[in-house]
Amino acid sequence: MPETNDADLISEVQKRYDEAQAHTSQWRGRARDDLRFFHADAYNHAQWDDAVYQARAGKFGGSPRPCLTINKTAQHVFQVENEARQSQMGVKVNATGFGSMSEAADALEGIIRHIEYQSNAQQNAYACAIQGQVRTGLGWVHIVTDYVPGVDTFDQDFFIKSVPNHMAVYFDPAAREPDHSDQNWAMIVEEMDRSEFDRQYPGHDDVSRDPLSGIESDSGWVSDNTVRVATYYRRSEKKDTLWMTPDGPMRQSDMTEEMVEIFRGMKAPSRAVTSHAVEKIIIAGNTIIAQGDTVFSMIPLVPFVGIETRATDGNDADYAGLVRFLIDPQRMFNYTASAFVESVALQTKAPWLAAAESIEGYEEQWAAANTSNAAYLPYNAVDHDTSQPLSPPTRIEPPTGSTGHLQGMQSADQWMQMVTGQYQAEMGAPGNEKSGVAIQQRQRQSDTANYHYTDNQGMALRYIGRLLIDAIPKVYDTQRAVQSLGMDGAQSSVVIDPTLQQSATVALPPGPDGQPQQPPQGMTLQKQRQLEGAILAINPTIGRYDVEADVGPAFATRRQDAFNALTQIVQADPQLMGQIGDLVFLSADFPLADEIADRLKPASDDPRLAQVQQLVQQLQGQIGQLQQQLKDKQADIQIKADAQQHAKVKDAMAADTNQYKAETDRMAAIGSTDPDALRVLVHQLVSEVLSGGPQQPPEDPEDGAAPAIQDGPPGPLPRLPSSNPPGGEIHAPNPVTGAVDV
User: Fold this and answer.
1) How many other CB atoms are found less than 10 A from the CB of residue 521?
2) 414-426 burial, b if ≥16 CB within 10 A, otherwise e?
3) How far is 308 from 320, CA to CA, in rounded Å?
4) CA-CA distances (angstroms) from residue 79 to 83, 355, 641?
5) What is the pLDDT of residues 507-558, one digit of tens each?
6) What is the largest CA-CA distance in the chain?
7) Residue 686 near residue 656 (C-beta atoms within 8 A)
8) Where are the alpha helices (H) located in 234-369, listed in sequence order?
9) Do 303 and 139 touch, CB atoms closer than 8 A?
10) Does residue 349 contact residue 371 with C-beta atoms inside 8 Å?
């Protein structure tokens, strides 16, 4: 914020106050007259011109004349106001990218709806603003932050306040947007009695008693009996540079000088950006009571505009409501109604015509004929002097008013309907329409004629929504649970967690084992929120959101319309009852309808089924873990069995190795034997093969003596049986070399 001392700041407020007063001085005078005209009745005669009323009331001499006030203006105004009261006013939040999610947008919408609910905005702030819009052309809503009431906490929340006196708001004349969202300053100025000021702002007894700090004594800001208190908002721009970094866009104000120099040397992409901040200052006379920054980026004084008219130079502005256009037709109606009554009152009353002789002797009874309830009225049928029959008294026509005055009243009534677009059918009079569609079309004509009020209400609501969406992350800047309100009035809890890595997620309560539950795979966040104990958590700092106005029939009205439509659909095709029966009774508004809807709801839509499926999945996961543990156990057993078998094989191989070694040693011993001794052994072996049985080994010779052999060659050997492979012949050993050829 720009640095200013107290004197400069007070001078700034006074200067802008005078500027705004000059900008809207014409409207303020007319707005007061419009309010007086709207509240006119038989006592204040505010719908009569002062000079005309004084003349007719006999102030300047002469007999008083009727001055009737038939206030039809109020009913035309109430028609528009009450139509808005029956509507469901609010904002619709949409996710527009950059990481935003529809579930987070729905949660933010529910949070804003809860802010409206806790502020009683529908019946208080919005209704009051609409009254100013329709009656004087301009109404206001004030949005503030304050500590949560009723609890010992430092948490703050938003509250939507009403501005009962709409002419106490002074605003920036340079604003050009239809909703005034580009205004750079605005203030609420109140004239407080000194005692009330001391009660609300204790410790400031010397305020406004002396003209200090540049405040002139004749400016109206200084008084001994009253204190002028201004709640002043001003918006300032903060220029910055946005750099493209490897981690994404980053503002230069959030970077160090070294980082800026690095990216400047790299010639990284950059652009100039502008942000806004709003400061709040409370000034009482010549003293600043409080001053500080707010969480808002726009002025938190939101206008509800009726019909805005700006001068060609753009300086002076005028605002009009519905009352402005009803002034002349209403005055015409009052004048013709008064003239009609006057014309009737001035006519001679002669209800009976009778001869004096016919009522002679009965004068008192006939004199009271118009005021008494006599059963009969006697008269003289014969003249006593002449004995001639007399005509009976006869009733003449009563006095009638001027037909011109009646036509004037009818014309004035029609002109009032013409300027408002509200004809007799809209005002409750019976029409020629018979079907519901025809009646709705007639009512829609009135809605279209006054739709500019509804449209401007939507612009104001969008202003409020943008203001809150931008400020919510700054107030809900720590993890906390807040309430979210649905369109049907159902409340739910939402956790605000600025540390989340995504804009929305669902937290489930711990399972039976105390471990955090995981949602079923593939289930949407919308379905997860329906699970028992599920809580939605959002991070409002992630993503981008936009708002649109939601001005339409109240939820109860739309619910009734839905029930009527679904009933007609089911009557046309009764088979659909099995498919949409739960929706039919869900839209109904009679007792036990919700229970019937629950019983007709398909099992696939029941969130309890999802919980059962989740439990089944958890059990299946546990079974899978047990099966895996069983497989691991079996594998361990198999490994141990393989190890034992391997040990046996190893032992067998060791035994074979030992046997092989023994045979090797024996063969080595044989190889070292004398050839002559070996010849005897081979000859014995061949003999055993040929004879089919073992031969008795020869007796061991004496030590050192060679075994005995037969003299001469052994002769030819016969062939082996044919079962031997071809070529498998065994030849006689060669006694010379001692070799055996196989």
Assistant:
1) 7
2) ebbbebbbbbebb
3) 7
4) 6, 57, 94
5) 877 777 777 677 767 777 777 776 777 788 999 999 999 998 877 655 555 6
6) 218
7) no
8) 257-265, 327-345, 363-367
9) yes
10) no
Distance CA(558)–CA(552), nearest Å, equals 9
Residue 190 has pLDDT above 60, yes or no: yes
d(CA 173, CA 22) in angstroms, rounded, equals 10
Q: CA–CA separation, 451 vs 562, rounded Å?
A: 24
CA atoms lying within 13 Å on the CB side of residue 170? 21
For residue 418, give the amino acid letter. M
DSSP state of 382: B
Among residues 51, 47, 50, the alpha carbon closest in space to that of 36 is found at 47
What pLDDT digit, counting tens, does each position of 115-147 carry? Answer: 999 999 999 999 999 999 999 999 999 999 998
Work out the angle at residue 83's Cα, subtended by the Cα atoms of residues 79 and 86, and round it to the nearest 5 degrees: 140
Tokens coding 247: 């981690």
Q: How far apart are CA 452 and CA 657, in angstroms?
A: 109
State the DSSP code for 87.
E
- Per-residue CA distances from 369 to 123, 344, 366, 395 (Å): 56, 20, 5, 11
Q: What is the pTM of this model?
A: 0.69
Q: Do 48 and 327 touch, CB atoms closer than 8 A?
A: no
CA angle 348, 349, 350 (to 5 degrees): 110
- HSE-up of 275 (CA within 13 Å, CB side)? 11
Q: How far apart are CA 504 and CA 497, in angstroms?
A: 9
Determine contact, residues 409/336, Cβ cutoff 8 Å.
yes
- CA–CA separation, 140 vs 129, rounded Å? 5
Instruction: Characterize the bridge pairing of strands 226-245 and 270-284.
Output: antiparallel
390 in Cβ contact with 380 (< 8 Å): yes
Is the CB of residue 61 less than 8 Å from the CB of residue 434? no
